Amino acid sequence: MKFRDPKSIIVISLYALINAAVIFIGLKDVPTSLVERKNAAPIAPEYTRVENLEYFNIKESLPVLSLKAEEMKSLGEERADFLSPFGIYHYSDKKKSLKYQANEAFYQKSEGSLKLIGDVKLADEMGEYEGIELTYFLQKDFIQGVGGVRFDGVDPQTQDKFFIVADKIEAYPKKQISEFAGSVNGKLTPKKKFQTPMTFRSEYLRLTKNQSLAELWGGVRIDRGNYLITGGNAELFFQNYNKSLKYFVLNDDVKVTETLRTPEGVVERRSFSESLEGFGSDKKMVLSGAPRVEQGKDIIKGYRITIRENAELIEVDDAMSDVQVKRKKN
After folding, report:
1. 47-140 belongs to which homologous superfamily?
2. Residue 254: predicted pLDDT
């Protein structure tokens, strides 16, 4: 019997061990590789990119949404992103429409929303909305804006103009309802030039245009001519602005500060009450709920007190007489 050289045996043994190790490692790595492939992130979806496009969403052979943009990136039929978009959305009654433009737009067909970002403008028969970010939910006829909004509108009954600024807005254009919240500031400019403009401030404002009504809550402040009126809440009736009916009502800790010009000079008159009603053509304000009026050292109290605009005459109902605030003689 012949024996191999010991060196050859060692080489063959090492070679066998190496092959066994390679096979073992290879078999061991197969499951790990499969797991890694299984857990690997899915391949990112591919967008379709189009430049200088015109986009239409058709429903029942009629355009619902039309849009032009410098660029569009779409993912199937569910999502589309637009650069510098502007277009028109047609309401279901086909009589009214909403125009819009922005720096960017994101259209989600599944939820029926069009988000507009950057120098946003939305305009319809109710007025024009401006803001940093506005989202319009098409099927719900609902606009939601954050980051500061502005609204320019005209009252359909009186044609008076109003301008409103707030932190955010929720609006229903077809219902002609807009709700503003957070540092609300506004101005009413009557159509007739001889009428005095009115500015107002509050934390919350609800504007109902088909009723020519604005409702304010929280730190209400109204500036009108030489009058400053404050209270907890208020209602402004634009439709009756120049009629004998009431055109504004305030409640909850009402205060009226008035500047009067008298032969002795300019004086300040302050009035306090729980409620106040302002009337149009009669140019008067009626205070009720423990009202009192202070002018200099004079204090007048009564069940109901009527203040005439730009006049020193004060009417006190419970005394059944007029009270004239006397001026000191030189």
Report:
1. Lipopolysaccharide (LPS) transport protein A like domain (2.60.450.10)
2. 95
Tell me the domain boundaries of the chain: 1-40, 47-140
Q: Are strands 86-90 and 104-108 parallel, antiparallel or unpaired?
A: unpaired
> Cα 159 to chain center, whole Å?
22
What residues in the chain have per-residue pLDDT under 70? 1-47, 57-64, 77, 92-95, 239-246, 263, 280-281, 319-330
Cα distances (Å, whole numbers) of residue 23 to 58, 208, 238, 278: 62, 80, 89, 96
For residues 330 and 313, give the distance between their C-alpha atoms in angstroms, rounded to a whole number.
Answer: 21
Determine the straight-line distance between the first and last CA of the chain, rounded to whole angstroms: 152
In which residue are the tokens 């009202």 written?
291
* Nearest-angstrom CA–CA distance, 132 and 148: 7
Q: What is the pLDDT of residues 266-289, one digit of tens each?
A: 888 899 999 998 876 677 889 999
| DSSP letters spanning 163-228 | EEEESEEEEETTTTEEEEEEEEEEEEE-SSTTSPPEEEEEEEEEEEGGGTEEEEEEEEEEEETTEE
Among residues of the chain, what percentage have pLDDT more than 90?
25
pLDDT tens track for 3-27? 445 544 444 454 454 555 545 545 4
